[in-house]
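User: Thanks for the earlier help. One more: NIPSNAP domain-containing protein. Can you show the sequence and predicted structure together?

Assistant: Of course, both are below.
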Amino acid sequence: MFNSILKQCTLSCTKQITVPLQFRCLSFNTASLKDNKELENNNNEGWLKKLLVRRIEPTKEQHSRMLSDKEVIYELQTHNVRPDSTDNYMKNYEQVVKLCQKIPNLKYELIGSWSVRVGDLDQYVHLWKHQGGYAEIDKTNNILLQNQEYAKLRNQCGQFLRSRHLQYLLAFSFWPSIELKSGSNIYEIRSYSLKPGTMIEWGNNWARAINHRRSNDEPFAGFFSQVGRLYNVHHFWCYKNLEVRTQTREAAWMSPGWDECVAYTVPLIKEMQSKILHPTPFSPTQ
């Protein structure tokens, strides 16, 4: 009986299988499959090249020296003001600015002063310029600490603040030189926290990217931190209003190559934020 069942199964398995007509023309070309696989790999490799960070070779030269002139140092002050003290704070800080302008031999120049309108509210940002490197900063600090009027204003200012932060910055050499603006403008500061060791890579990409953003005279200043929060980058942009800002940024995406610059720099960023700033009445740039 077992032999009879086995013979029947064998005959069933050896019968010819009829394939429907619509499937008879289907064939698998191994060469085509290989070509498709290579094309897919090439596409994936292209995207990976945009996402991966190029390795920076060791160098005996400081990265900051390769990106900037260290003889001009900028000071970025960020003050968080008590909401009920903004008017008193503004009067106090204007007095500080006027005092610094009167002190002889003080190489300490206010470039811009802004209030934050979108972002961290009740916050003020002040950008100062030091000529002569860190040696001149030491002299400036000594002069101000010995000035009784400055000490009085500084103590008064402390009553109006919730917190404050200071950074020393260097300007990127590939950014346009700072030119003070007039008229009615708004500013945007876009701040980036980068992964340690990626500042050169950031500079390499933005040296090309800045060329896509020059058409409307929007770049104001570009800095990276030296003292304070490290691996911070600050880009200042100037626009007539929020609508012009939107139109200008959308136009950048139409510029060939801008998308690649963005794709290369995004993997370098740990955190980023944007703030809209309005110049104070005593700001040298408006």
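User: Great, one quick takeaway?

Assistant: DSSP finds ten helices and eight strands in the chain.
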